Amino acid sequence: MSRSFTIKVPCTSSNIGPGFDVVGLSLSLYLTLRVKVDASADNAAPTLAYTGTGASDAPLDPYKNLTTRTALYVLRSNGVSHFPRGVSIDVHNQVPFGRGLGSSGAAVVAGLLLGNTLGNLGLSKDRLLDHALMIERHPDNVTAALMGGFVGSYLLELSPEDREAKDVPLSEVLPEYPPDAGEGWGANPPSPPRGIGHYIRFGWAPEIKVIAIIPHFEVSTAKARGVLPDTYSKSDLIFNLQRLAVLTTALTRSPPDPYLIFQAMQDKVHQPYRKGLIPALPQILASVTPASHPGLLGICLSGAGPTILALATDNQQKIADTICDQFKIEGITCDVEFLQVTNDGAVVVDGDEQ
Ligand SMILES: Nc1ncnc2c1ncn2[C@@H]1O[C@H](COP(=O)(O)OP(=O)(O)OP(=O)(O)O)[C@@H](O)[C@H]1O
Ligand SMILES: N[C@@H](CCO)C(=O)O
């Protein structure tokens, strides 16, 4: 017997200025997996093929690839020790790696749906979010990729017992299984505590368009988190909290108020510390304002960078050109994507269309 299905996961931009590790926005570049299961085929481990962005960089070994490792984690933490036989996966990727557009979150979310579907586990998206948070331990990208839209999320304060289960080192949640390990793949990974992540979907004013200016260099999230301090001043935290409280509603209002949104997208928690990783970041963030570029609403670092996200109702090309010119002064070329906010989140569709 054979079956096929397609998994489609959107890219995401997190933080949107002041909402560090809190808000995420689901956008119209996709990671797509076309999956076939042919029970008469003799491959025990899935075969992987990639096309699109990053195709030559993604590991094709299913025990090293983030998506298939995540799928195996979901299977094994729910009592299914192996992939079914005869799985082949054609991946088409539009999400650039290491640019602040949630490529790792998309790869994890694709793996959640892959494991859930291959194992016929019937886990809800809320329960899959628990699994995602065992792997990517900040909720903003994975929640937006899974649920879609503009979302805010928090992690539950856990009981000491659940905290112990949650704080398992990532290497134990996602071990790189040796390819010839056969039946003896060590202990089952722990099942995640229930209800770790909670979220709410905000609205999004239809006039607000998203421009992503994607420089041609990578910044790993791990490195961009490594430059952040462990503690913050009370005034810097208040600065961000005040703005985030206004921003989540300001972005729902029609017509959008550029002066309110521009100020509400300022941040003192992560962007100032990341300027050493992204040449001329302060100048780039100051290069477009509602006064200099009518139609602009706000500008920020997308996720951990280096992509710059601009929100605008008008004048998108000019805004993009100005930001690209700032990068060019630093000798950096960019791609520009004009994106839509997408509401479906990650989906699984029977068959291999799309
Ligand atoms: N489709 C994919 N398949 C396999 N691995 C992937 C895929 N997408 C991303 N990865 C892995 O994730 C890494 C990038 O993750 P990282 O967290 O550094 O950046 P990001 O997720 O693109 O940015 P951000 O988290 O700031 O939005 C890649 O180098 C690769 O190892
Ligand atoms: N909120 C995270 C997103 C990166 O995935 C950060 O800025 O580090």
From TrEMBL:
Gene3D superfamilies: 3.30.230.10, GHMP kinase, C-terminal domain. Pathway: Amino-acid biosynthesis; L-threonine biosynthesis; L-threonine from L-aspartate: step 4/5. It is an enzyme of class 2 (transferase). The keyword Hydrolase does not apply. Coiled coil: none annotated. Residues 65-149 form the GHMP kinase N-terminal domain. Residues 264-328 form the GHMP kinase C-terminal domain. GO terms for molecular function: ATP binding; homoserine kinase activity. Its EC number is 2.7.1.39. SUPFAM superfamilies: GHMP Kinase, C-terminal domain (SSF55060), Ribosomal protein S5 domain 2-like (SSF54211). HAMAP family: Homoser_kinase. Belongs to the GHMP kinase family. Homoserine kinase subfamily. This is Homoserine kinase. It comes from Pseudozyma flocculosa.
